[in-house]
Design goal:
The protein has helices at residues 55-67, 88-101, 116-125, 139-146, 173-190, 210-218, 220-224, 238-244, 252-263, 275-288; strands spanning 3-5, 11-13, 19-22, 25-28, 34-40, 72-76, 108-112, 129-132, 151-155, 198-201, 231-232, 269-272. With 301 residues, it is of the alpha/beta class. It has a single domain (3-288), classed as Alpha-Beta Barrel (TIM Barrel).
Amino acid sequence: MSNDVTASGIHLPTIDQPQRLLNGRLFDFSREVAVMAVINRTPDSFYDRGATFALDASVSAAQQAIADGADWVDIGGAKFAPGPAVPVAEEINRVIPVVEALQGSGAVISVDTFHPEVAFAAIRAGAHVINDTTGVHDPEMARVVAESDATLVITHSLAAPRMPYPSPTYGDVVREVVDFLNERVERAVQHGVPRERLVIDPGHDLNKNTLHSLEMTRRLSEITSLGLPTLVAVSNKDFVGETLNRERGERVEGSLAAMVACILQGARIVRMHNVVQAVDAAHMTEAILGFRQPAYLKHNQ
C-alpha cells in the first residue's frame, strides 16, 4: 500500500475509498478523524460500572457526548469480557430504545454486538454501524449487514464470545492481527458486504496482554496500511493502566497519548470515554497534520 505525505512530512497510509456517507454526513477519512463516544447500557461495564445502565441515563449520556462533539455514538448492551450470556432479547431491549431516542441527533449511531439478531433489530431501528468485536465469527452477521446500508466494524479477537482466553501468545502479534483482519474482511465481502462499508479494528486488549497492545500501537501503521478506515479503542484500557500504574478513572492522559499515537499512524475513528478531551486532542492532531485550520488566528498577527 502506498503512503501519503502530509504537509508536516508525516507518512500516512492511503485509505481506499476514504469518503464514507453515514447518516447524511460525508466523512473523508483521508483528512478527518471521527470521535466515537462509548455508551454502555450494561450493569457491569468495565469502565463506568453501570452508571449508564438505566435508559434515561444512557440516553442523557449519549446526548451529552454529542453536545460535547462526538461524531459517532457506540451503544453496547453486553460487555466483551467473559461472563454469563446476555439473552438476545434482553440485549435488544437494552440497545434499541437508545437507538430510537437518538434519531435526529445528527450523530452516527453504532451498536456494539456480536449477535446477528441484535444487529438486525438495531439497523431496523436506525443504527448506521454494527461494531462486531468478535470479528464476524458468525457469518450471518455479514449477511445481515449486507442486506442493509449499514457499515460493519471488524475487530480482531480470538475467544468465543464472552469466553475466557487466558495467557494469549503470539509469534508476531501485529502480523497475526493483519492476517486475521484480512481473512475476516474477505469473509464479509464474500457474504455481500462491500469494502466501502467496512472498517477494521485491531482490538487493543482483546485477548491480548499489555505488551501486545503496546506493540500494536507502536506498529499500527502496518494495520492501517490494509487500506480500510481503522478504528482504535484505546480508552481507559488495561494496557494504559498497567503501563502507567493507574487505576480506572486515572487513565485519561495515557489514553489520549495512545489515541494520538494511533492517529499519527492512520487511525481515523477513535472510540473514547472522555469525549471533551478526546475531541480537543483529535482536533489538535488534525491541525498538526494539516487537516484542520485553527479556530481563529490572533497571536502575533
